[in-house]
Amino acid sequence: MHDILPVSLHELLAHEFQPREDVLAPFLKTQGSAMVYAYRGIGKTHFSIGCALAVATGSQFLRFRAPKPRRVLFVDGEMPGVELQERFAAAATRLPEGSEMPDPDYLRIVTPDLLRDAPIPNLATEDGRGAIELHIEGIELLVLDNISTLFRGRGRENDEDSWVEAQNWILALRRQGISTLLVHHAGKGGAQRGTSKREDVLHAVITLKRPQNYRMSEGARFECHLEKARGIFGADANPFEAWLQGDRWTIKDIEDAGDADKALVMSLREAKMSIRQIAKESGIDRNKVHRIIQANTPAEATAPP
Q1: What DSSP assignment string belongs to the chain?
Q2: Which candidate, 22, 113, 12, places its Cα nearest to that of 64?
Q3: Distance between start and end Cα atoms, the chain
Q4: What is the pLDDT of residues 14-66, one digit of tens each?
Q5: How far is Cα of residue 130 from the mean position of the Cα atoms in its chain?
Q6: Which sequence spans correspond to the domains of the chain?
Q7: Smaller CB count within 10 Å for the chain: N or C?
Q8: 19-209, what's its fold?
Q9: What confidence tens digit (pLDDT) does each residue in 227-280 have?
């Protein structure tokens, strides 16, 4: 039986709790937990590595800011070691000007290819969680990439009970002052895959989506949307687009991306292209092309199909 000790309102109000600080503003604070999810190949690992480096160096990634360096443990569950090495090396070259590589104690990495004969920890089990807990002393951010490979429960992903132990562990880490960033896949309907119970104790949920006019040749280009954001208001809550071009990320507001679509569609329209041709040339959904033309063409003008 748990020994629970209720306190009076006076005692609660008089207690001096440790103030919560930004780990990666605006979406992650000390004792915070967040999830980023997306379909395969959109940029989840770019995102998680960028966040880990920003926190470990006290710098910035995309529009997220780490006020000071904090110790990070990054646990990867599936990527080949050489590919993870390449991703981290490339991400390190994109650190903001004036930033240096993190101190060795500030970014530790678990990768399957360097576990020798040991299996990838199964965090759905007590033994698996214990294997990670041996290395969390002093850690302030735990990045788990990803849920499907690291939490290998016996139940189905949409079974609420299969997530209970994982949720309890995240809450236990929170009491120890450790923030968590979970990486997950999107399901067929576009929401995070499996039970929605995963989101109950999270402070923030971020989804990465392909822009409507995305082309495969553009590589890592995605929209970043805050779906759940406790205490985040105003401009910090606005979605934005991120595009990895060469050795740098280009960031712009979603509204700006819409302006770019409008300019492209109308320039092709002036070249006497049909809606079907514009959609094929630009990669923009045909219905959206029609709406842009309709909104920006005088009523008396006619449009070929």
Answers
A1: --------HHHHHH--PPPP-EEEBTTEETT-EEEEEESTTSSHHHHHHHHHHHHHHT-EETTEE-SS---EEEEESSS-HHHHHHHHHHHHHTSPTT--PPPGGGEEEE-GGGSTTSPPP-TTSHHHHHHHHTT-TT--EEEEE-HHHH---SS-TT-GGGGHHHHHHHHHHHHTT-EEEEEEEB-TTSSBSS-GGGGTT-SEEEEEE--TT--GGG-SEEEEEEEEETT--GGGG--EEEEEETTEEEEEEHHHHHHHHHHHHHHHHHTT--HHHHHHHH---HHHHHHHHHHTS-TT-----
A2: 22
A3: 71
A4: 999 989 999 999 999 999 999 999 999 999 999 999 999 999 999 999 999 99
A5: 25
A6: 19-209, 258-295
A7: N
A8: Rossmann fold (3.40.50)
A9: 988 888 888 889 999 999 988 999 999 865 566 678 888 888 988 899 988 888
Q: Are 160 and 92 in contact (CB under 8 A)?
A: no
- Rounded CA separation 295/145 (Å): 43
In the block, residue with structure tokens 């979406």: 27
Query: Residue 3 is which amino acid?
Result: D
What are the beta bridge partners of residue 182?
35, 144
The residue type of 30 is T
